[in-house]
């Protein structure tokens, strides 16, 4: 009846929700199964007629009739299954098996009946059985070779029938490949079932989550619970899992009943035949086999649910990260969001397995107690009360564990956040010599994390007493009560082998669910804590979609504004009460409809903004640093809180941020940015952005891979790539945040003429240009002047000059200082240079057009000479104009071994070597390891000893019963010894977990982490240039999560089960010596399986670990460029990319899990033979074996299946988890930079003079690349001011890196000693040979001396802390302003305020809440780029050194602030040596000398006046292009 109902339900589901695959059907399977089921229906209906005619019981007739109807329904179902599914029907398959089982039983019964008593002819039953067997064969036949399955493209799991899934036959192909060779990602592709893919899970989860939020918001009831939302979403899938779990419990507890019958048979075997004993042995074997298969299948199904849940959560986290409001982004750093993905979502990796235990554990305990009552009577109540006594302790422990787990995760968040920032800003950390300071801070946070982990270890110690020792304690209480009062009328109970050893088996089985409480509790708490953290993140405020009214198309009327802002006030912080706090916890948005009612502008960044921008017009936004220029663009794209007013944007927006955002992809992909490739448009864009010469130099042209954060591009190149991306996007509105600040003067001119300006590529687009330069302002259509967050003026250049207000003052101040400088140079250069009377604007020639770029010969020449990228390679000579198509036509053909900057992550082959295990055990301390092993053996000896003592007691009692003269043994002695053994066992299990989790684990984690972070902070910069940040963070997050938690847990379980299995084998062999003949074969089988799993699972774990890095990297890149992603409305494309990477990760995770389940099936099948042979040998030796000893042996043997399976699985898990240690060691084995300190004794206050000498110095970024500096030989005198100029890629910044030894002299000792590429000296030398230079000439990279000391001989920290720098990228770190100025905490506050005053920031910092303690957000996002530059100036002022390097430090500040900085430098560093690298030629015009670099060589080195006298000099040309002469 149930089968028929299920068939009807399945038919309804298929026809209602199914989707036909339209692939046809496999005739040779379809028709035989249809015929078989039809014949089965006919035969069973004939049987029903026969039974009816012979007046058989109505139940029998009705049963046959219902079965016949069921088979008819199965025919209909089979028809639909072949239409909608490509695999065998699970219901039909199960019905076949059930029908065959019942038919065989009936057939056996009929054979035992006399022929006269048989109602149905036996031939009919045989025919029915034969039909069913044939039908099952066709139904179960593998269909992988059929056209239907091959055409479907479905994963193997979706093709497999239920039998294949039970024994994991569908995974056999991958196993076979893995045994022949090392598995690769291609071998395991397409394993993930379609319904588990990220999109499916996300849609289901997000829909239910949003419905729950909407319902609770509407009714204002209840609190949000992401956890229960997940459970409700997976509820229907959990039902069959729970039912299967209950079936496993029912079958498992049949074993003790059969054991009872077996012991009864052994005690009285004369009355029963030998076949009875064999039947009991085979029954125990079959039940154990069924449990094994069902358990593995059930476990796999739970992993499938966990994979789906984890993927959906990561998808929700990623999508949420793209929608965070400004306030939420300040609360959730990149590191914290990455942790939600890498740690919190990861908690669901095996969560379903442990969550299902809360259903099965009470049932298991209940069944065990009922069976105990059958054997021990009311005495079991004492044991039950003892079990209840543990519950309050467990509750208390769970609370402690949850609190400690939360503390650990919070500390880990802080650690990952700080580590992320330090790694992202590693170049700046090196330049400042701050590695030691950040190392100390990271280790301090790590210590807090380890303290929480130690507390967790102590809690685990007490939990282990509750869970591991509880069964022995309960058995002591129960047997004690039974032996004293368990008999009739509270007389002493009689302990028999049947009573004791069946009870012992039940106690052993009871240990499983009780011990599982520990895992279930810790896992559930981990899931709850992690899910709560994700929930808090998902409830964070989102950016308002209504704050800016957007229209997809531009207005038809050209007089209508494309950007319209009226009476608008904006803020970076939400002044209102945080509606996302604990009060409501709702996922509210920034609601624009409430804007006009909220007038608190006290924290407003922009106030009373009124702005109108027409299509095709160019608007310049000017103002001093920190006045709100960049904020205005952010407000337009909706990145700020709109407090009041109206913002309307019509048309597609392209956004170029002030700090270029580059993704790790090819140069072409960075420009296309997901758009289709249009060759003409692409070439136009490259030329307009001045990228053609740069592309010509790249190893693979525009197909060259660009490193993470554009690491292998100069600042100017990154900015031009960002511009090219926006230009190619063909948007209607272009928001350009100071894109010209990072480029040289001639590049500035080219970009203006060909891209941004009135005749540029974007001339028909609306452009809003934030700029600090004033030389283009006369050519713009509108100028907007910002001051203190308000628009104080706007209009045309002429109008604003006539008004003589703020803008006029700005221009006048600049012009006066500019004119004075020119007069000085005019006096020194004589009549060669003519100064125009009006010093306000720069005289630029008319812009050339894209159609005729050669009209301006000077520009054409300069762009042909644009020279090099930062690696110093020369530009290829090209004929014709700079727009020649040949430069782009054959880019795909240009290939080079340097084209791929980011190499694929290294993945070792084979098993984890012994070296890795040795490293981990050494970190734990071998003393601890051996002590733990010894204590485990002692504890197991106590456990076996207590069982042997019970056996001894039973034997003595039986002897006393048989011989009245033999006095019965003392109950007190029995209980005393039993209690002593139990007490020792409990004490040992207090000590062992404490040693493992609170001592050895902490020691290993501390040592491995300290080694890794110390090594990472001292690796050469080339490592960070070629290694994605996500790949490094993977070590600090996912891998150390394994080191902290998974590996110690596996280590503990491995020894626990190892000692237990060893003692069981010894006991079985001792009891039944014949078992020793079988044992070698079993051990060989286990050895083969263990080797197979290591051979297969280790590469799969490596593949899984490596596949995490792309996901982390994409996460990090997306979060860093979220403003650009949102402004350009490409969220969907990035979501698709995240989904692809998540599916790839889930596929590899499932491949690893499937491998483990396949092995688990083999192990369980093999382990059941241990029970089979032990019981068969017991039956065969029934006449000479002691039933007590047999009972003891079988009770242990019945647990052997689980223990051996767990041992081999856990051992292999331990080995595969050691991959995390292997990956950590991979980095700790790398070569580091030179040491921080050497034996060279530096003079006090070195350098005292500031003399710098470059002696024939050459360098490259890493071995295998060309030289970036070639034979530099110059001397800079003490106190001299030197300006360093040159075109993009000439080597200006490389000179700075050389001075700080971020790069080493070519072919020097340290260049070779820090090389991690594995290249030989010959290879690294030959690849760098220039056509003009010999091998001999390249042997020495020269040297740099500061005050006569070769800097290669001194420690890096000594060197870097003795120099001061204002770097090109002003980098701030999360923490206080004080931390950013003085990370070593060496200076007084008065010193810091003085430095801030001199850097013109004191007033602003004083206005901030907390002053010096004001918290800087991640990457300094709550400060403008200009303000960050000023903080870097303050850092330099705090260093009382004789040498200062300014690496394009004023590129991001306005001209007025630039003047203030230059004035400060002239005053504060007048007696110091100053090296200034600048794009603005005027910045270095008053320097004592000018160093002109060209292609990595010194082109000119002289005073500005002398260089300007020579019109053929490169400096003269640069100054002329910049309008300085």
From TrEMBL:
Keywords: ATP-binding, Membrane, Nucleotide-binding, Repeat, Transmembrane, Transmembrane helix, Transport
Alphabetical list of SUPFAM superfamilies matching this protein: ABC transporter transmembrane region, P-loop containing nucleoside triphosphate hydrolases
Domain ABC transmembrane type-1: from-to ranges: 241-526, 930-1216
Species the sequence originates in: Entomortierella chlamydospora
Identification of the protein by name: Multidrug resistance-associated protein 1
Principal subcellular localization: membrane
GO cellular component, one term: membrane
Gene3D superfamilies: ABC transporter type 1, transmembrane domain, P-loop containing nucleotide triphosphate hydrolases
Encoding gene per record: ABCC1_4
Acidic residues bias: start-end ranges: 867-879
């Amino acid at each position: 009846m149930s089968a028929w109902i299920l068939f009807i339900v399945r038919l309804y589901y298929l026809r209602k929700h199914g989707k036909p695959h339209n692939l046809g059907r496999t005739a040779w399977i379809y028709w035989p199964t249809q015929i078989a089921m039809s014949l089965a229906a006919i035969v069973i209906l004939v049987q029903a007629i026969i039974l009816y005619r012979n007046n058989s019981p109505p139940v029998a007739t009705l049963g046959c009739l219902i079965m016949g109807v069921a088979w008819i329904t199965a025919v209909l179902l089979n028809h639909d299954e072949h239409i909608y599914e490509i695999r065998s029907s699970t219901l039909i398959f199960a019905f076949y098996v059930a029908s065959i089982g019942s038919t065989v039983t009936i057939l056996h019964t009929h054979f035992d009946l006399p022929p006269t008593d048989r109602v149905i002819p036996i031939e009919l039953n045989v025919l029915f059985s034969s039909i069913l067997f044939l039908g099952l064969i066709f139904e179960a036949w593998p269909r992988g070779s059929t056209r239907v399955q091959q055409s479907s493209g479905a994963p193997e799991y979706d093709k497999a029938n239920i039998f294949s899934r039970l024994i994991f036959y569908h995974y056999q192909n991958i196993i076979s490949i893995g045994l022949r060779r090392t598995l690769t990602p291609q071998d395991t592709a397409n394993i993930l079932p379609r319904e588990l893919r990220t999109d499916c899970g996300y849609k289901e989860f997000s829909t239910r989550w949003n419905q729950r939020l909407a319902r609770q918001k509407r009714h204002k009831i209840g609190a949000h619970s992401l956890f229960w939302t997940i459970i409700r979403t997976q509820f229907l899938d959990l039902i069959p899992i729970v039912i299967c779990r209950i079936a496993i419990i029912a079958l498992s507890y049949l074993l003790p009943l059969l054991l009872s019958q077996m012991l009864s048979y052994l005690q009285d075997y004369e009355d029963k035949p030998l076949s009875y004993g064999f039947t009991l042995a085979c029954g125990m074997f079959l039940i154990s086999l069924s449990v094994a298969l069902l358990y593995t299948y059930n476990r796999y199904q739970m992993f499938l649910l966990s994979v789906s849940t984890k993927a959906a959560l990561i998808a929700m986290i990623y999508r949420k990260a793209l929608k965070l409001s400004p306030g939420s982004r300040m609360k959730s750093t990149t590191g914290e969001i990455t942790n939600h993905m890498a740690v919190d979502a990861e908690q669901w990796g095996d969560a379903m397995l442990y969550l299902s235990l809360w259903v099965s554990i009470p049932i298991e305990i209940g069944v065990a107690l009922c069976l105990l009552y059958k054997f021990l009577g009311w005495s079991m109540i004492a044991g039950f009360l003892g079990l209840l006594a543990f519950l309050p302790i467990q509750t208390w422990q769970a609370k402690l564990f949850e609190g400690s787990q939360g503390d650990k995760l919070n500390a880990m968040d802080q650690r990952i956040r700080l580590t992320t920032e330090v790694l992202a800003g590693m170049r700046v950390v090196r330049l400042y010599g701050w590695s030691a300071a950040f190392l100390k801070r990271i280790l301090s946070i790590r210590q807090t994390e380890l303290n929480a982990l130690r507390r967790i270890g102590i809690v685990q110690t007490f939990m282990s007493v509750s869970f591991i020792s509880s069964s022995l304690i309960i058995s002591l209480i129960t047997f004690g009560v039974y032996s004293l009062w368990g008999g009739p009328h509270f007389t002493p109970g009689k302990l028999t082998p049947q009573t004791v050893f069946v009870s012992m088996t039940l106690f052993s089985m009871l240990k499983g669910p009780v011990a599982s409480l520990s895992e279930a509790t810790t896992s559930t708490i981990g899931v709850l804590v992690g899910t709560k953290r994700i929930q808090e993140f998902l409830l964070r405020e989102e950016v308002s979609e209504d704050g800016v009214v957007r229209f997809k198309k531009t207005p038809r009327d050209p007089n209508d504004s494309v950007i319209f802002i009226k009476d608008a006030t904006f803020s970076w912080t939400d002044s209102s009460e945080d509606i996302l706090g604990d009060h409501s916890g709702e996922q509210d948005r920034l609601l624009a409809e409430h804007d006009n009612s909220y007038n608190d502008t006290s924290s407003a960044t922009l106030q009373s903004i009124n702005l109108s921008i027409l299509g095709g017009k160019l608007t310049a936004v000017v103002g001093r640093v920190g006045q709100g220029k960049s904020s205005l663009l952010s407000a337009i794209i909706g990145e700020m809180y709109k407090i009041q007013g109206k913002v309307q944007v019509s048309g597609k927006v392209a956004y170029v941020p002030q700090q270029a955002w580059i993704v790790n992809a090819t140069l072409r992909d960075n420009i296309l940015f997901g758009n289709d490739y249009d060759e003409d448009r692409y070439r136009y864009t490259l030329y307009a952005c001045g990228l053609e010469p740069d592309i010509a130099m790249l190893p693979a042209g525009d197909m060259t891979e660009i490193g993470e954060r554009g690491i292998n591009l100069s600042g100017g190149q990154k900015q031009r790539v960002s511009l090219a991306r926006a230009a190619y996007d063909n948007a209607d509105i272009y928001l350009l945040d100071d894109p010209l600040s990072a480029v040289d003067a001639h590049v500035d001119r080219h970009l203006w003429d060909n891209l941004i300006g009135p005749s540029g590529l974007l001339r028909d687009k609306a452009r809003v240009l934030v700029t600090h330069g004033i030389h283009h302002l006369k050519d713009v259509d509108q100028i907007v002047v910002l001051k203190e967050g308000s628009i104080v003026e706007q209009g045309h250049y002429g109008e604003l000059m006539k008004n003589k207000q703020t803008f006029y003052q700005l221009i006048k101040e600049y012009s006066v200082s500019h004119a004075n400088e020119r007069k000085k140079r005019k006096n020194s250069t004589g009549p060669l240079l003519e100064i125009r009377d009006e010093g306000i604007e720069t005289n630029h020639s008319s812009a050339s057009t894209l159609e005729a770029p050669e009209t301006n010969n000077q520009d054409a020449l300069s762009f042909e000479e644009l020279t090099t990228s930062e690696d110093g390679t020369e530009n290829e000579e090209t004929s014709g104009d700079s727009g020649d198509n040949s430069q782009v036509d054959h880019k795909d053909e240009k290939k080079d071994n340097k084209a791929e900057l980011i190499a694929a992550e290294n993945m070792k082959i084979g098993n984890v070597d012994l070296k890795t295990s040795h490293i981990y055990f050494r970190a734990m301390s071998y003393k601890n390891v051996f002590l733990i092993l010894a204590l485990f053996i002692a504890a197991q000896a106590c456990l076996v000893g207590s069982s042997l003592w019970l056996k001894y007691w039973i034997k003595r009692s039986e002897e006393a019963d048989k011989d009245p003269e033999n006095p019965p043994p003392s109950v007190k002695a029995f209980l005393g010894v039993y209690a002593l053994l139990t007490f020792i066992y409990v004490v040992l299990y207090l000590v062992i977990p404490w040693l493992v989790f609170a001592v050895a684990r902490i020691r290993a984690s501390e040592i491995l982490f300290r080694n890794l972070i110390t090594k990472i902070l001292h690796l050469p910069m080339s490592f960070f240039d070629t290694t994605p940040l996500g790949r490094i963070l993977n070590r600090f997050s996912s891998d150390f999560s394994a080191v902290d938690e998974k590996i110690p847990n596996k280590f503990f379980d491995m020894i626990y089960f190892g000692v237990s299995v060893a003692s069981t084998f010894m006991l079985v062999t001792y009891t039944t010596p014949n078992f020793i003949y079988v044992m070698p074969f079993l051990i060989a089988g286990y050895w083969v399986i263990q080797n197979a799993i290591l051979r297969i699972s280790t590469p799969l774990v490596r593949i899984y670990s490596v596949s995490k890095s792309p996901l982390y990297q994409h996460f990090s890149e997306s979060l860093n460029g979220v403003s650009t992603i949102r402004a350009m409305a490409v969220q969907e494309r990035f979501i698709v990319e995240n989904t692809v990477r998540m599916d790839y990760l889930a596929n590899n995770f499932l491949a690893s899990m499937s491998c483990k389940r396949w092995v688990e099936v083999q192990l369980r099948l093999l382990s059941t033979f241990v029970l089979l042979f032990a019981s068969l040998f017991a039956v065969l030796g029934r006449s000479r074996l002691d039933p007590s000893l047999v009972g003891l042996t079988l009770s242990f043997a019945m647990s052997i299946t689980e223990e051996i399976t767990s041992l081999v699985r856990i051992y292999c898990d331990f080995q595969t988890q050691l991959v995390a240690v292997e990956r950590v060691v991979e980095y700790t084995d790398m070569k580091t930079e030179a040491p921080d300190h050497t034996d060279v004794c530096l003079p006090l206050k070195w350098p005292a003079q500031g003399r710098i000498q470059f002696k024939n110095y050459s360098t490259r970024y890493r071995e295998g690349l060309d030289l970036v500096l070639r034979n530099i030989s110059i001397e800079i005198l003490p106190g001299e001011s030197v300006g360093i100029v040159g075109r993009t890629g000439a080597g200006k910044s490389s000179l700075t890196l050389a001075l700080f030894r971020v790069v080493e002299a070519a072919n020097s000792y340290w260049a070779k000693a820090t090389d991690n590429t594995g290249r030989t000296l010959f290879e690294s030398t030959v690849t760098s040979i220039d056509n003009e230079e010999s091998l001999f000439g390249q042997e020495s990279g020269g040297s740099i001396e500061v005050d006569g000391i070769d800097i290669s001989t001194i420690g890096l920290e000594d060197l870097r802390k003795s120099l001061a720098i204002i770097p090109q990228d002003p980098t701030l770190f999360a923490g206080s302003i004080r931390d950013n100025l003085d990370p070593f905490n060496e200076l007084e506050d008065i010193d810091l305020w003085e430095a801030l005053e001199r850097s013109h920031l004191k007033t602003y910092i004083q206005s901030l809440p907390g002053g010096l303690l004001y918290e800087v957000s991640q990457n300094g996002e709550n400060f403008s780029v200009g303000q960050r530059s000023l903080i870097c100036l303050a850092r330099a002022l705090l260093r009382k050194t004789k040498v200062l390097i300014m690496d394009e430090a004023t590129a991001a500040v306005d001209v007025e602030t630039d003047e203030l900085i230059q004035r400060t430098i002239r005053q504060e560093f007048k007696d110091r040596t100053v090296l200034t690298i600048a794009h603005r030629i005027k910045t270095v015009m008053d320097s004592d000398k000018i160093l002109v670099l060209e292609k990595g060589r010194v082109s000119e080195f002289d005073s500005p006046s002398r260089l300007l006298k020579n019109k053929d000099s490169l400096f003269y040309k640069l100054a002329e292009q910049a309008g300085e002469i």
